[in-house]
Specification:
By secondary structure, this protein is an alpha/beta fold. The chain folds into three domains: 113 residues, Probable tRNA modification gtpase trme, domain 1 (Gyrase A, domain 2, 2-Layer Sandwich); 123 residues, tRNA modification GTPase MnmE domain 2 (Four Helix Bundle (Hemerythrin (Met), subunit A)); 157 residues, P-loop containing nucleotide triphosphate hydrolases (Rossmann fold, 3-Layer(aba) Sandwich). Helix content is 43%, strand content 18%. The strands form two sheets. It has a seven-stranded mixed sheet. A six-stranded mixed sheet has the order 9-10-8-11-12-13, sandwiched between helices. The two termini are 16 Å apart.
């Protein structure tokens, strides 16, 4: 990390401004010769200066340059940010000048990686940066902000501290059994402490998995017989003509997808082929896909033609649905509903007219109510941010269960101490207190350049 790096930190294109970020020991000294204005090596830290970026006598752009001196910067290195006009050409020309000065183009996520390696943030906060950029709904945004402020770090570190205390107690009992004032670590005591840890970690994992559903998107499928209004429902929810709508049964043969945001969470919706017996090879494949996605979905929107009595096909289809994750749409309300709620007593129902966009808001409210139980309280901090963190916590929990079993089987305490240290290291991988170079590279390779 001895070299100085630079990158465009804003999306390249036409806009009001674009920002080029420079970080490293020579950031100020290498930008200074390009800047016509104040001497950047003499200015105070965290100040902004007006001037021009020049190549020889040619003015490249009129800019504002921000100078921030280590250690009070994101990377804990000297940082210079050049605010250019937001055109593609001037931004690229300024970047080219910086490269000619011997500043290296940053790798994806390298600024955040430096922040981690310099002790400014830990793994969970680095991941929170990317989660914040990519957040699509209020839940994802709230969790990312909370983790960026250290909630995930504090949670994991508190858990590791409890483990350290247990390990220390075991080792003191082994190494200094003659000390009378040390509490004896009996099988009963250790078993009780491990049970508490496992119960707590299980709760954290379960809460986090539920949260991932809301944060990453509720996988939603629209299913039903052909020509009952599935594609019309998708278009009504998305408020665009995403799917082709015709009176011809079997128009939808492949999966049509879309995404909508409902406040705290996101629906990833798939309109599937109409489910029916068919000899058409292509349509048959579509029906099989529909049944597969239906089983895997978090939410099923089952569409019925409410203007006609339930058919045997409808009844057979309803038997395949899980009422706890299904909402039945009684479509074609405008023609008069024949199917009653009593016919569908196990299911939540919403009468609609997809062609007239009637009932869409009621459906959205029903979906929000269905997943309200998964909704986080704003002060709930016992949440892991992403799948990597959850997977490591699950691994640690499995190891905890193994230690508990070994304890009951009479395994020596010194052997258990080694297993507990493995759990400690596993949890340390969540925050980056224990990591490998491979893990470090993998973590940052999906970041955008300039972040």
């Amino acid at each position: 990390m001895e070299d100085t790096i630079c990158a465009i930190a804003t999306k390249l294109g036409i806009g009001a401004i674009s920002i080029i970020r420079v970080s490293g020991e020579e950031a100020i000294s290498k930008v200074n010769p390009l800047f016509q204005g104040k001497d950047l090596e003499q200015v105070e830290s965290h100040t902004i200066h007006y001037g021009y970026i020049k190549k020889g006598q040619d003015i490249i752009d009129e800019v504002l340059v921000t100078v921030m001196k280590a250690p009070k910067t994101f990377t804990r290195e000297d940082v210079v940010e050049i605010n250019c006009h937001g055109g593609i050409l001037p931004t690229k020309k300024v970047l080219e000048l910086l490269l000619e000065q011997g500043i290296r183009l940053a790798e994806p996520g390298e600024f955040t990686k430096r922040a981690f390696l310099n002790g400014r943030i830990d793994f969970t906060q680095a991941e929170a940066v990317m989660e914040l950029i990519e957040s699509k709904n209020a839940t994802a945004h709230r969790l990312a902000v909370s983790s960026l402020r250290g909630s995930t770090s504090k949670l994991v570190k508190a858990f590791r501290e409890q483990l350290k205390m247990i390990i220390a107690s075991i080792e003191v009992n082994i190494d200094y059994p003659e000390y009378q004032d040390i509490e004896e670590m009996t099988v009963e005591n250790l078993s009780h402490l491990l049970e508490q840890l496992e119960s707590h970690l299980t709760k954290i994992v379960e809460n986090s998995k539920n949260t991932q559903l809301l944060k990453n998107g509720i996988q939603t499928v629209i299913v039903g017989r052909p020509n009952v209004g599935k594609s019309s429902l998708l278009n009504a929810l998305l408020e665009e003509e995403k799917a082709i709508v015709t009176d011809i049964a079997g128009t939808t043969r492949d999966i049509v997808e879309g995404e909508i945001h409902l406040g705290d969470f996101t629906l990833s919706i798939m309109d599937t082929a109409g489910i029916r017996q068919t000899e058409d090879v292509v349509e048959k494949i579509g029906v099989q896909k529909s049944l597969q996605y239906m089983k895997e979905a978090n939410l099923v929107l089952a569409v019925l033609d409410g203007s006609m009595p339930l058919t045997q096909e409808d009844k057979d289809l309803l038997e395949q649905f899980n009422p706890n994750k299904t909402i039945v749409i009684l479509n074609k309300k405008d023609k008069g509903l024949v199917i009653s709620k009593e016919d569908l007593k196990d299911f939540q129902t919403v009468p609609m007219s997809t062609l007239e966009i009637e009932g869409v808001e009621s459906l959205k409210a029903q979906i929000q109510n269905m997943f309200a139980q998964e909704k986080l309280e704003e002060n709930d901090t016992e949440i892991l941010l992403n799948a990597r963190q959850v997977a490591l916590a699950e691994k640690a929990n499995q190891l905890l269960k193994t230690v508990e079993h070994s304890l009951q089987e009479g395994v020596e305490l010194d052997m258990l101490s080694l297993d507990l240290k493995e759990i400690l290291d596993t949890l340390g991988m969540i925050t980056g207190e224990s990591y490998s170079e491979e893990i470090l590279d993998t973590l940052f390779e999906n970041f955008c350049v300039g972040k």
